[in-house]
Amino acid sequence: MSYPANLRYTKDHEWISLEGDIATIGITEFAQRELGDIVYVEVETIGKALVAGAVFGTVEAVKTVSDLFLPVAGSIQELNPELANQPELVNSDPYGEGWMVKMKVDNPADVDALLDAAGYEAVVG
After folding, report:
1. Which of 28, 32, 34 has the alpha carbon at shortest distance from 11?
2. Which of 36, 55, 68, 95 is the 20 to 30 A CA-CA neighbour of 23?
3. Which residue, 70, 68, 73, 72, is CA-closest to 83?
C-alpha cells in the first residue's frame, strides 16, 4: 500500500494535505481497503467550526458505516462534489480525486504534529 510522504496521517486513518491554511482531507488507502466498496459519503458539517477529533461525516460501504474524524481544528469549507455521483473515487484514487473535504485550519502548525508516512505505516503494519 502507498502512503505519500507529502501527507500527514491520523491513527483514525484520515490523511491531510495543507496549502497555506486550507487543508484537503480524505481517508487512506488502508482505510478504503478495510471498508470495501464505498457507496456513499455524507458530510453535514459544511460551514461548521469543529475541534480536532470531532466527527465531520460518515462513509458508507456495502457492509458498514464508519465515522470520519477531523485531524485538526477548523471549519469545513467544501465537500468534494464528485463524490455525490462517484463515491467509488474514494476506492480508486483515495489520495487524489477521492478527497472528501476542504477545511480552513485554525492552527496550521497542528498539522505538523500528526503522523508522517513512516509513522502511519508503523500504526497499520
Report:
1. 28
2. 36
3. 68
Report CA dihedral (40, 91, 64, 3) to the nearest 10 degrees.
Answer: -130
With 0.90 as the threshold, say if the pTM is over it.
Answer: yes
Distance separating alpha carbons of residues 122 and 116, to the nearest angstrom: 10
Report the DSSP beta bridge partners of residue 74: 50, 105
For cell 497499520, name the residue: 124
Do residues 23 and 102 touch, judged by C-beta distance below 8 A?
Answer: yes
Q: Which helix (H) or strand (E) holds 29?
A: helix 29-35
Q: Using one digit for the tens of pLDDT, what is the confidence trace for 71-123?
A: 999 999 999 999 999 999 999 999 999 999 999 999 999 999 999 999 999 99
The dihedral formed by the CA atoms of 73, 41, 63 and 115, expressed in degrees to the nearest 10 = -30
Ordered by start, the domain boundaries in the chain are: 8-109
Q: Indicate the residue type of 115.
A: L
**In the structure grid, which three cell numbers stand for residue 117, read together?**
508516512
User: What's phi and psi for 91, nearest 5 deg?
Assistant: -80, -45
